[in-house]
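debug: dumping io for the single-chain case to check the tokenizer round-trip. Nothing else runs in this session.
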Amino acid sequence: MRNKRGDEFVEAAMVLPVLILTILSMILLMLFFFSCLQDQTDAHQEMLAHSAESEKTFQVYQQKTRTSRHAGGIVDMLLHRDMDTRLYIIREADFIRAGDLLDLA
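debug: decoded output
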């Protein structure tokens, strides 16, 4: 019977680099998704600040942002995501006042 101790080391030497690169690629992908979430949160806060300054009764505010990140690992590529955010600004008090004016009958 032959000695199989060397076979295990050869198999580990072939599998471990692929496994490590796959794990690192997954970590880079998670960082990209975190970056997208952070950009989306920043856009939401900016839109809320804009709505607080607005004096209009009804307004639709739109903003487009793009998130890009270079992803290395097994596959070397540039990941990007385009976000189109929309905020509807409605001042309820102004609508109620306008409704009271129209309900004179």
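debug: round-trip ok. The chain is about 55% helix and 25% strand.
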